[in-house]
Amino acid sequence: MAQLNGQIYVVTGASKGIGRSVSMELAKAGATVVLLARESEELARALADVQQHAGASFAVACDLGVSTDIEGAANTVLTSCDRLDGLVHNAGDIHPIKPLLKSEASDWARSMMVNLVGVQHLTQALSPLLERPNHTRVTTISSGAAMRPLASWSAYCTAKAGLDMWTRCLAEEGAQHNITAVSVAPGIVDTAMQNTIRSAAAEDFPLRENFVNYHKDGQLADPDTVAASLFGLITAHGVEQSGQRFDVRDL
Fold this sequence. Notes:
Layout: E1 8-12, H1 17-28, E2 32-37, H2 41-51, E3 58-61, H3 67-80, E4 86-89, H4 105-125, H5 127-130, E5 136-141, H6 154-174, E6 179-185, H7 192-198, H8 208-216, H9 223-236, E7 245-247
Parallel strand pairs: 1-2, 1-4, 2-3, 4-5, 5-6, 6-7
């Protein structure tokens, strides 16, 4: 399939998990993909795999918890691309997994930066490409944690709830610039984040055993399967869907 020929998508958290799988789906459909993630061998391998399908794709090392990284990444994209058809905000950080009264302020602040503030910063920095005549679709990866409190996930729950509202705000304001925005909860997916959750100290995370059992019982979704389900929403959602929140299990 090559229905996305000539289109450009930016995907954050693209070195592994859902971000990597979404990048592959987009590349197979003919899109040029800009892979954003912290510098790592995983990012290099993900880029090599994506380039087998979309040779013009490139990677930019970026830690969304660091403002200067965001500015640098945005400048690279602005100087390398003449359009932006899609932006997938997938990067996320589950830390700190601790009771909120015992969490370090710096850990809470980083969670807000990676999961929410960095999303705003990157999007705003890319605004010269967003405010072009072509339709730009923005997709944020939400979570069930945005809808209900989970013990020891206070930072993540709060950031994801904020991200859902941010998406609605972008949908409202972006309409005049031909920008649409949706959020989607991907379910419980077999990613590195799940490894981190299962590795949390039991005394800090009373729900830890639940997540151990999800893995043991084979209840985790495969990232490639999730990316395939998300593809249509990421690449084809329209004005009538803009501002809405979806669950991948309903797609």
